[in-house]
Amino acid sequence: MPTINDSFDRLKHTLRDTEDRYQHIVKQVTEVVRQLKETLRDLEERYQHIAEQATDVIFQLDSQGRWVFLNSAWTRLTGYGVDESLGRSFLEVVEESDRASSFEIFTRALRGQKCEGRELNIRTKDGDPRTVEVRARLMEGAEGWALVGVLCDATGRRRAEEALTLEHAFLRDIIDTDPNAIFVTDEHDAFCLVNRAASALCGADADTFIGQRACDLDPSGDYGVLSHLDAAAPGRASGVFDARIIDQSGRVRWLQTVKKPIYSALTGRHYTLGIATDITDRKRLEHELAHQALHDTLTSLPNRVLFMDRVNRALANMRRTSRPNAVIMLDVDNFKVVNDAMGHGAGDRLLIAITERLLTCVRPGDTVARFGGDEFTVLLEDLNHSTDALFVAERILESFKHPLCISGRDVTPTVSMGVAIGHSENELSEELIRNADTAMYQAKTAGKAGFALFDPSMNAQAVERLELEGDLRKAISNGELTLDYQPIVRARNGEITEFEALARWSHPRLGLVPPTKFIPIAEETGLIIPLGLWVLREACAERRRWIADAGANPDLMIAVNVSLTQLRQPNFVSQISAILHETGTEPRHVKIEITETVMMFDAEAMIEKFAALKHLGVRLAIDDFGTGYSSIAYLLRLPVNTVKIDRFFISQIGRQREDEVVIRSIVGMARSLGMEVTCEGVETEAQLAMLRKLDVDFVQGYLIAKPLPPTAVAQTLRQGVPVTP
Q1: Which residues pair with 134 in a beta bridge?
Q2: Which of 55, 150, 538, 630 lies at a C-alpha separation of 20 to 30 Å from 389?
Q3: Per-residue pLDDT at 550
Q4: Which BP terms in the Gene Ontology apply to this protein (predicted)?
Q5: Are 584 and 488 part of one and the same domain?
Q6: Is 424 within 8 Å of 318 (Cβ atoms)?
Q7: Is the pLDDT of residue 538 over 70?
């Protein structure tokens, strides 16, 4: 049986084992605590290092708003040392104007509200203003709740934003000062920017536009000016386009919009910039100039140019209708007597009254034109029968039996008319008008105050024409024709720059036959082809003789006229090239003159032919400019060097101011297209003075010199002096 001592020994051994185990546990816990302290110390050192390396201020505020922790970035930002700031209120560095709002932010943050991206204005130790962005959150620590966060220096950004705002306001002022309507639309056609002029044009506040499309601003679809601005959407082609609009006051206005796609690298989006200019005044002036160019100033009737155009159109329409047209040429009998007796003012009033009387005798679709002076023309289109034209002529005669009141006096003028019927679409307008003119003179010969219907047999000219054709054919074959040369000089100093070669025919029986008589025969019979080649060959050869014998300028040019018949020849350009090579003439010393009426016939083919001539190197001139068909439209496509203004406009200088306007317009247009301007038919010093004032390049006419034979040209060149008076 165990004794008490045995029990005591067992208890003692048990206690000893327990103590050993306890000591072992204490040693283990102590080691863990030591390791934790080292880890915590490492973390604290690492955190401190990170905090010190941070460029932004890391802070901790206690519940009273006092700095508990600040990294060294605080000193770099404010100039205050960390030690001198710890324990002090954060409000001490906040601008006084921001302290109330800053304290409110602090108290809300202590209640757990987020504080992200809030800006505060502070003062540095040196008194400099700074803007900081605050990001902080509420955290619980050993000493209770505190705010931990970051202060980022936003001063540069704020100043950049303020500068950007000022710059934006500055640019906005510039845009709003611009009288043109400026706007920007996005990919969805919504307006992003509208200046004051655009909003005023549309009658709406600028803010109303932003983010809206034109159709949103007026869902009815009838949005007037907006419809023009809406056309500047990115999906549509950029460029320049005009539009006729109705503004908010109901007035008709013209806008010209320039639009251009733009890309913003900032937003990564595409936009369209549009600038709309009010061109109403310009359009009105263009309309007035166009009207002046095509209408008679005194009567407002179509002039010769417009009348010729309408006759051409009427003849072309005959292909569709197969119904005849007619032209009536009308001349006021003894108009000069009225002018001399009652004065030019009364003469003008008489012409106006005659115009009004003529308009009452024709249908609304017919054309009454003033052809010049006291000559009028009437175009009757789409007649049921040829005799309808005679009924109109009779009606006109009947109407002039009633007196006109001019300057308080009754005047009963009489008129002589010629009627020509157009039956074929292949008939030329010039021919139809010429026939009417021939018939009119027949009526005058018959005693005036009547009319005559053109008949090819009404005069003996047809027989004479046949004889002349045969004689002309022989004259060309036998070399009986000669050339005269009319100088073309610089307007400013009279320097001779070129000579225009003009064919002359001295008939053994009839004497000198005027070109106006034999050139049309050559045109109609095809004789113009050999005649034209002879003119070019002879003129080039004569030029070489002038240079060799008369000391002419080696750059002297020769100008020759070329007809439609010649241009239509397939080998025309090669023939020109051969003659230039044969005579040793450089192409740049030859100028080919063509009348703009050539463009009435197969314009595209003529444009190709002109391009080939230009490629050859010869110079090109448009002769009789202002009297042809669709002049401006085709002139833009022609490789032309020179525009020769028709003598008709020159003859009207000092008589009709409108013709001076036309000349000025042609000169301006030619300048803009890089062309030179020559004015032909200069016969008075007043005309020359005006042309110099209008800054034309070259002049030609009897005032300068009449066409000269080759010997007289050589003598003039030897003298070497300007021929301008």
Answers
A1: 118, 151
A2: 630
A3: 84
A4: regulation of DNA-templated transcription
A5: yes
A6: yes
A7: yes
